[in-house]
Specification:
Radius of gyration: 19 Å
CATH class: Alpha Beta
Number of helices: 11
Distance between the termini: 26 Å
Shape: globular
Helix content: 25-40%
Strand order of the largest sheet: 3-4-5-10-11-12-13-14
CATH superfamily: Aldolase class I
CATH topology: TIM Barrel
Number of strands: 14
């Protein structure tokens, strides 16, 4: 496919935000905020600036409060030190001509009491996901979390709002609400992790309620068309999430209702595992939700250059989010443009502090030189 014809390389008007291409850098935990404040530094600014030729960068998940933490060395967006740290990254990306959203994150039960002064992690219900949490003392088994009170739910909604306000102060172009991958909001959506009997449990509408209350609060402190939402409808067997016959109807309800908002985008993941044998799963997420969702749709998970171009060509998505290829190919857009070979990533350095495996992957121009 010639460069001029590659759909991935065409510009995109995302609700008034002009993206130079349709390559999105997916949010990826990199665990480099290894300081007392869990604040980004010049290292993160360099990392994101190197990747600023992406049409849009979505940062790593950033916790909205101390109670939202579940992994070591992940950055937050709740303190003044974190806001100041993020300003380095937004300034660097904007100077390089890029656009950058921050992903707002609460891990819920995928955490450990080691992070919370001995207190149990918070979750919709007291159900252990039987997963692992990456603690300061290494990977540990998750614990049975503490069921959130209504007051704690309301506080969490405010934490998302405060994180958004801080994101605007830090210079981000927008925020992505992480309602995906088995973390807190996804835990509310699922009957296997939410057995509440109050207004946040039971019916599909009740289990989805928290997401819409969060959006309604966030849009009070920033433009609605700068809010993105990430969902993973067919997540099964990851972080203790198991699907049932109400899983897809729940996401159908959520996606349909998101049409009532003027969002920046909806970011969906194709299944992380083979769900073809599950009668209640949806193996083709873009095909199901493109006709349903009227706004900008970003699709993610397992796309290469050819598949990315094809999904846009077929009209099943407006943009494609790439994860690991962006780790080892900071200039992924340029490599696609030249149909160049991609560099391999080193999984051993995905979550290790320092520049190794983070900011030391060379651009194609450097390799040729």
């Amino acid at each position: 496919m010639s460069n001029t014809k590659q759909p991935l390389l065409q510009p995109l008007d995302m609700k008034g935000l002009s993206l130079s291409n349709r390559l999105v850098m997916a949010p990826m935990t990199r665990s480099r905020a290894d300081n007392a404040d869990n604040a980004p530094t010049e290292l993160q600014a360099t990392y994101y600036k190197q990747r600023a030729s992406a049409g849009l960068i979505i940062t790593e998940g950033s916790q909205i409060s101390p109670r939202a933490v579940g992994y070591i060395n992940t950055p937050g967006i709740f303190s003044s030190a974190q806001v100041e740290g993020w300003k380095l990254s937004t300034k660097a990306v904007h100077e390089a001509g890029g656009k950058i959203f921050i992903q707002l994150w609460h891990v819920g039960r995928i955490s450990h009491s080691d992070f919370h002064d001995g207190k149990l992690p918070l979750a919709p219900s007291a159900i252990n996901p039987q997963a692992k949490s990456y603690t300061p003392k290494g990977f540990k088994d998750t614990e049975t979390p503490q069921e959130m009170t209504i007051e704690e739910i309301k506080q969490t909604i405010q934490d998302f709002k405060n994180g958004s306000k801080n994101a605007m102060e830090a210079g981000f172009d927008g925020v992505e609400i992480h309602a995906s991958n088995g973390y807190l909001l996804h835990q509310f959506f699922s009957r296997t992790s939410n057995v509440r009997t109050d207004e946040y449990g039971g019916s599909i509408e009740n289990r989805a309620r928290i997401l819409f209350e969060i959006i309604d609060e966030i849009k009070q402190v920033m433009p609605e068309n700068r809010i993105g939402v990430r969902l993973n409808p067919s997540l099964h067997g990851v972080f203790g999430m198991t699907m049932d016959e109400e899983s897809i109807p729940t996401f159908d309800y959520i996606v349909e209702r998101l049409n009532q908002y003027d969002l920046a985008y909806l970011h969906l993941s194709e299944p992380f595992s083979d769900v073809s044998g599950l009668s209640f799963a949806e193996p083709n997420i873009a095909k199901r939700y493109r006709p349903m969702y009227k706004g900008t749709l970003i699709i993610n998970a397992g796309f290469d250059q050819e598949k990315g171009n094809q999904v846009i060509l077929e009209g099943l998505a407006d943009a494609v989010a790439y994860g690991k290829p962006f780790i080892s190919n900071p200039d992924l857009a340029e490599r696609f443009e030249q149909n160049a070979e991609l560099a391999e990533w080193d999984e051993a350095t995905f979550y290790t502090p320092g520049p190794k495996g983070y900011t030391d992957y060379p651009a194609l121009s450097e390799v040729k030189a």
